[in-house]
Model the fold of this input.
Amino acid sequence: MNQLIRTLIVYACAALMLGLTIRVFALRGGPVWGIPETIFDHVWFDPPLSRQAIVMSRHAEALMPRGASVTVIAPELAPHYDPTHYLTASGLLPHHEVRHPALAEDEAWPDYVIALGKPLEHEGYRLAREFAEGRLYELKR
Done:
């Protein structure tokens, strides 16, 4: 009888844990069983800007000519940009010159800017393409 009660408790706890795990997956949203696009897809409820930097780098790569200079910024963090964003792009854009964010008047501006989050408001750039994760801007010539 004692063994039967112990077995029932173990099964009940396993069923409870299974239910809680399913609830967590349902709250996080999909893709639950699919292959995630980035490592951040199953980590947080709100996707971080680093996830957007990965996806935007992939989108922008085909739209920029080889050798073009580019930087990745989150305009709402100006002037203290997060280095994680452009350093992420430096690994994903091997055929481009990824620069530190420098958009001041006395500095050389990159050919392209990938803006994460809010739109970039800069007189030297115009919108080239817009995606769900951000925007690609090109230098006005």
About this structure: Residues 1 and 93 are 65 Å apart (CA to CA). Residues 2-28 form the longest helix (27 residues). The chain is about 35% helix and 15% strand. The first strand starts at residue 69 and ends at 73.
